[in-house]
Amino acid sequence: MINFSRNKGFTLIEMIVYVAILSIVFVLIINTLLIITRSYKSIKLTNDINNSASISLERIIREVRAAESVNTSSSILGSNPGKLVLNTTNNLGAPLVLDFYVENNSLKLNKNAVLSGVLTKDNVEVTGLIFRHITSSSSQAVKIELTLTGTERNTTKIDSFYSTAVLRGSY
Question: In which domain, by residue range, is 16 found?
Answer without folding.
Answer: 12-170
